[in-house]
Specification:
Elements: H1 7-15, H2 30-40, E1 52-57, H3 60-67, H4 72-80, E2 83-90, H5 97-100, H6 107-112, H7 115-139, E3 143-147, H8 152-159, E4 164-173, H9 189-192
Antiparallel strand pairs: 1-2, 2-4, 3-4
Helix pairs in contact: 1-7, 2-7, 3-4
Length: 196
């Protein structure tokens, strides 16, 4: 069976897509970010919990504060990207469940009354949503540079609160000169897939 999605779209989203390390200075607009969100919000999560939160770092002052929390090798990338997003998991996502999962509004208290259960669910499901977000950036014709090389506690204190756990920082824009490192190997099908 072949994939239904057009081969050019497959290339855009997967085969030719890469993590960008440099960007042009072309701005990323609020309209582009809205279009990305309007596409990726339909990705599945357990009980439709949607715990991902996105903090857009646009002001020069906020950018400077964020750069100080990045690992040394990531600082210049974050300083020069047209847009930077901090993706985090909202550990109080359950408050929205009566609206987001009306088929079973009691799920809020049934499964997520305790904070450790919420944190585990938020981490997993927000990570799923972060992956959808990266695909959405690619679908918009932009490049993403997702990174986990930063001071998580520092970013949380500087930009979030105790109810939000940072997941990654994503640089977003049009790829600049020498944007790509050589592609690393991937595992083959039979190394990953097992039939039982």
């Amino acid at each position: 069976m072949s994939i239904v999605l057009d081969p050019a779209a497959q290339d855009l989203l997967f085969r030719e897509a890469r993590t960008a390390n440099t960007f042009t200075d072309e701005p990323v607009t609020d309209e582009q970010v809205q279009a990305i969100y309007d596409l990726v919000k339909y990705g599945p999560t357990a009980f439709n919990q949607t715990p991902l939160r996105i903090t857009l770092v646009r002001s020069p002052e906020a950018r400077e504060r964020l750069v100080t929390h990045m690992a040394e090798g990531n600082r210049s990338k974050t300083a020069s990207a047209p847009l930077v997003a901090i993706l985090s998991a909202d550990n109080e996502f359950h408050e929205e469940l009566p609206h987001l999962f009306p088929a079973m509004p009691q799920v809020k208290d049934l499964f997520f009354a305790e904070r450790p259960a919420r944190e585990n669910a938020a981490a997993l499901n927000a990570a799923l949503q972060a992956a959808y977000f990266i695909i959405g950036v690619r679908a918009a014709g932009l490049a993403a540079g997702p990174m986990t090389g930063f001071d998580f506690d520092g970013v949380r204190k500087e930009f979030l609160d105790d109810d939000h756990t940072p997941l990654m920082v994503v640089n977003i824009g049009r790829p600049g000169p020498d944007a790509w490192y050589p592609r690393s190997p991937r595992l083959e099908f039979d190394q990953v897939v097992k039939t039982v």
